[in-house]
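In the current project phase, work has continued on tokenised descriptions of protein folds. One protein thus recorded appears below exactly as we store it.

——
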Amino acid sequence: MGMWFEIALWKRILAAIVLGVIVGAIWGPGSESVAWIGTLFIRLIRMVVVPLVFVTLVAGIVSMGDPSKLGSLGVKTLAIYIITTLVAISIGLFLAAVMQPGSDVDLSAAAPGVVQETIPIGETLMGIVPANPIAALAEGDMLAIIFFALLIGVSLLTIGEKGKPVADLMEASTEVMLRITHWVMEVAPFGAFALIATAAGTQGAAALLDVITLVVAVLIGCIAHMIIMHGLIIMKLMFKLSPVMFFRGARDAMLMAFSTSSSSATLPISMSVAEENLGIKPIVASTVLPLGATINMDGTALYVGIVSVFAAQVFGINLSLTDYMLIAGTTTLVSIGTAAVPGASLFLMAAVMETIGISPEQIAGVIGFILPFDRPLDMLRTSVNVGGDLSVSTAVANWEGEFDRKIFDKPLKY
């Protein structure tokens, strides 16, 4: 047993993913019989997410000592999240325009997909203030939880000595939740194996052959965005940090995101690697990462951009520069309100495609066409979303003086 724990976690998860693909491909639909292990693992993670975010955020604000610092942290976080999302969508639009993934595709055989109504921006903003904070905690409404935790943290700072018992309780609770998170992470390889085996067995790789150009465009876009935006621009040019060390530190979280297809389910692992591998102090990790899991959708924005142009090509709609700008703007705005759950981008697409004149029937056809192979692409773009969250957290931690370079540069267990 000791030998198992001596192997680095990322190696165990990666081996589980590879084994899951092989077992799923051989076993086929029968692989659904192990789906419960994956479901159990997701439930374990979801159990940790809300209390972890709440207590670490409150404890982080108290450790800050100055409420005014929170304002600059928030503005910088939102600004850089919007910029990275815009860069991602631009890369997606450029690749779709050059590679023409929809030029020779026939959608006549596709069964229409169900298009869920997108939530208006106003409603999303209103939802930030919880009518009932306890209900928000129970439902896992992340933006409302962040808002309520901010209020408690700031109020503890302003009442000073009287609030010390509560502040100490939050500090101790943070340690408790991080310890539980570590235990849950040890189950990750088994959960990853079951999730991947089920996906490979029920959906298979054959469906990907119909849309190989679209898949390749998404793959190139995701890799290019991570290397150029997060590796070269943010790490290398802005902060003179090693991109290799960043990706090595972020790999556990990115592999977990690939397995679960959910930014919010990966949140406990993201917060753990941010502090232990990347040297991001708790105050930044506990504010920037939960916010990122909710509003930062780099991979999703890139994917939606490519699919929107793909749809326009399929239906022979010529897009002008204005249309491309419209897609970029709409995607950036709508992605802020997208849920951090598997398949959420399908709802986002409907809103974006409507802006370039694609009818609801045509949108349903496109979604029906891409649905069979959406899961592997969802896994890929969620890895990019989580990698982006960790990169932005590293940037904000540097700006705010909440970054430990020694931890970032320390050699990790291979």
About this structure: The mean pLDDT is 86. The chain has 18 helices and no strands. The first helix runs from residue 2 to 6. The domain at 2-409 is CATH 1.10.3860.10 (Proton glutamate symport protein).
